[in-house]
Amino acid sequence: MPTTMAILNQKGGVGKTTTAVTLASGLARDGYHILLIDLDTQGNVADSLGLPHGDDLRRMLSPDLHYPLEQVITPSGLEHLDVIRSDKSTTALKQILAGVTLREYILVDILARATYDVILLDCAPSVDLLHFAALVAADYLLIPTRLDKLAVNGVRDALQTLAALKRISDCQVLGILPTFYERVTLESHEQLVHLAQTFGRLVLPPIPLDTQCRVATRFGKTLWDYSPNAKALIGYEQGNRRVGGYLQALERVKEWL
Amino acid sequence: MKNDTPKGMTNFDDLSGIDPAVESLLGQVQHRRVEAHLPKNERSRIKKERERAEKRKPNRINLDLPQDLKKRLQLLAKKEGVPVSQLVAFLLYEPVFQLENRTISLWDYKSASGCPKFECNLNLKRRAEEVSRKS
Hints:
The complex is a heterodimer. By secondary structure, chain A is α/β, with parallel strands linked by helices. Chain A is 43% helix and 16% strand. Chain A has 13 helices and 9 strands. In chain A, the strands form 2 sheets. Chain A has a 7-stranded mixed β-sheet, sandwiched between helices. In chain A, strands 8-9 form a two-stranded antiparallel sheet. In chain A, helix 1 crosses helix 13 (245-256). Chain A is globular and about 55 Å long. By secondary structure, chain B is mainly alpha-helical. Chain B has 3 domains: 20-59; 62-104, no CATH class; 106-135, no CATH class. At the A-B interface, strand 7, helix 9 and helix 13 of A face helix 1 of B.
């Protein structure tokens, strides 16, 4: 059975796709067989990996098509990493699925048969059917959040949604991943303090704000390939060690597998 | 692949405690904020000190020394009025040169190590006894 991890926050623009793509490609580099599923109609996973948009998700989940998983996966071009792309057709898919019984379980049934080590679900920033399906299918939940008031509210909403699904979901929260952290900004620091005071040990070391993330996406490359020394990857220097960054987040994720 | 041991959280009633890495990062930022309110000369002194420490970093190495050896080195350094690190560097030149040229060998002091990182350990106690006997 693969380990399934949902990356979710009901607020948009908090770094969900960057986190999903960076962790997926990082795990793939370490030899894990990874399937990254884009559940967002914007299809940004494909953009981030330099792939054309595709309706893989619709073909897999639509009751009238129901392609097997093996026929819809798209090789990412990176070793050990496959993706299921999404595009605007996912909007129509959600409408079709609204009439399906036991729709919350739609991902569980399909993913149970997958032969991957880890499946990452990049969720859309909205509460919809696929959002619930992801929480039901996932073993673990990772919540990226920007360090501002509205995004922190999104964290609270995500936890409330998970609590509401407790009867049908065994998903455990692995952590809250602060993104876009600016060490030199008082506001960013105070929001991190607030987040740590509110959510305690759920808060993971933050990902520094780094323009390289945006540039890497523009070139359709992962951060590991485009800028292996990017601050967002290696974090901050502290004494003779480094704190924060996707490298540390990746190590945490590997501990959980 | 799947690890059945629960690692995450499903209950959010008790969220006490902070991740140590987050705590240290917050502590560092707090430290910098306090520093920013110091008088200008004090700030520039701390800045220079930090820069000096940064420059020293490539030369730095952490050593675990037997306690008695550490004490003797500290005493000697104090007596000679030099930093311990410089004294150790001074004393190391000759044996390092000898080891490189194979005029001395570690063979007699080696024993198998259980640690996956290193093949062998050195018997430092035996070395200390031999040196004190010879001198």
